[in-house]
Amino acid sequence: MALLEQVVEIRGTTLAADHPIRLLSQHDLAIAYRANGQVKEAVELLEQVVKIKGTTLAADHPDRLATQHTLGTAYDANGQVKEAVKLLEQVVKIRGTTLAADHPDQLASQHALAIAYKSNGKVKEAVELLEQVVGIKRFKYSESHPSRVVSEETLSFFLQQSGSRS
Fold first, then answer.
1. Which residue of 61, 80, 87, 132 is most buried, as measured by CB atoms within 10 A?
2. Crossing angle for the helix pair 104-119 and 146-162, nearest 10 degrees?
3. HSE of 27 in the Cβ direction (CA atoms, 13 Å)?
């Protein structure tokens, strides 16, 4: 963590605020913050990066969407559920116009949105979306593929929580 913080600090003094390498370093540091339980710091840093990318990259640019996806999941982890849902819905919508339905990034964003729906008390919507994701992953991935397993386990958990069966 300290090394990433140092990299961000150095790149902050040597690169323009909108330089892609500087933004990537900040994005990576935010991911490390979140993994370390420093969710508030992750959100603050990601909000800065999203703001800058919002002025320099097209709405459908993969880097911009990746950071928005990460911020959406950080919002959810920080209890900012409405913000998470709004941002992840936007990411899923845009990726839906630029990526195939079975693209890993689209599936990841839909999975994250389903989790945010569940956090927001929208269990039915969460289950429906995860059922779509799982259906695609069952067709696309092997039974032991980590992404498929995680989505299937999440769906199973949501169904148990809601008292439904699949």
1. 87
2. 20
3. 23
| pTM for this predicted structure | 0.93
Q: Measured between alpha carbons, how far is 29 from 91 in angstroms, rounded to an integer?
A: 21
Q: In the predicted model, what is the mean pLDDT of residues 87-95?
A: 98
Whether residue 143 contacts residue 108, with contact meaning beta carbons closer than 8 Å, is answered with: no
Give a three-class secondary structure readout of the chain: CHHHHHHHHHHHHHCCCCCHHHHHHHHHHHHHHHHCCCHHHHHHHHHHHHHHHHHHCCCCCHHHHHHHHHHHHHHHHCCCHHHHHHHHHHHHHHHHHHCCCCCHHHHHHHHHHHHHHHHCCCHHHHHHHHHHHHHHHHHHCCCCCHHHHHHHHHHHHHHHHHCCCC
Residue type, 92: V
Quick one: pLDDT at residue 74? 98
Closest to 30 in 3D by CA, of 13, 48, 17: 48
